[in-house]
Amino acid sequence: MTEPDEVLDNLAQVSFAVMAHLSQVAAAHELSLTQLRVLGILRDRTPKMAELATHLGLDRSSVSGLVDRAVRRGLVLREASRDDGRSVRVSLTPAGVELARELTAEAARAMAPLTSGLSAADRNRLGVLLGRMLA
């Protein structure tokens, strides 16, 4: 296998492992992986519905259904946007904030084995490289 093929193969394998861990964490709380992503996105921002759809790569009607389910569970609030009365912003409720914290901690524990064989310097470097890939 050539080096670029090995990088691609390893990246795919790591992606699958991360998705499996995150799916297990979500399922333990009766959430889908996409609902987990919604809570993760809302941890540090209150986007408009259209912005949330862009973050998720989904159409607005799909996001509306996701948000409806989260509202029914008491995890998310919809509020009229202060800067644009036609828009709706989405934010976490206190229960949503608490669940997001819990999910973050569980995800960190679930994924720790993936990086446990790396030195602190390697983990830092991996974080930098992954950040550059996503930029």
Descriptive labels:
135 residues, mainly alpha, Arc Repressor Mutant, subunit A, 6 helices, 7% strand, globular
How would you portray this structure in words?
- The protein has 135 residues and is mainly α.
- It has helices at residues 3-28, 33-42, 49-56, 60-72, 94-115, 120-134, and strands spanning 76-80, 88-92.
- It has a two-stranded antiparallel ribbon.
- Strand 1 (76-80) and strand 2 (88-92) form a beta hairpin.
- The longest helix is centred in the N-terminal third of the chain and has 26 residues, at 3-28.
- 16% of the residues are buried.
- The mean pLDDT is 93.
- In CATH terms, the superfamily is Winged helix-like DNA-binding domain superfamily/Winged helix DNA-binding domain
User: How are the strands of the biggest sheet laid out side by side?
Assistant: 1-2
Helix content: 55-70%
- Report the sheet-strand fraction: 5-15%
CATH fold annotation: Arc Repressor Mutant, subunit A
Kindly report how far apart the N and C termini lie: 28 Å
In total, the number of domains comes to 1
The CATH class, by name, is Mainly Alpha
Overall radius of gyration: 17 Å
InterPro entries: HTH_MarR-typ, MarR/SlyA-like, WH-like_DNA-bd_sf, WH_DNA-bd_sf
Organism: Amycolatopsis pretoriensis
Protein name: DNA-binding transcriptional regulator, MarR family
Keywords: DNA-binding
Give the SSE layout.
Elements: H1 3-28, H2 33-42, H3 49-56, H4 60-72, E1 76-80, E2 88-92, H5 94-115, H6 120-134
Antiparallel strand pairs: 1-2
Helix pairs in contact: 1-5, 3-4
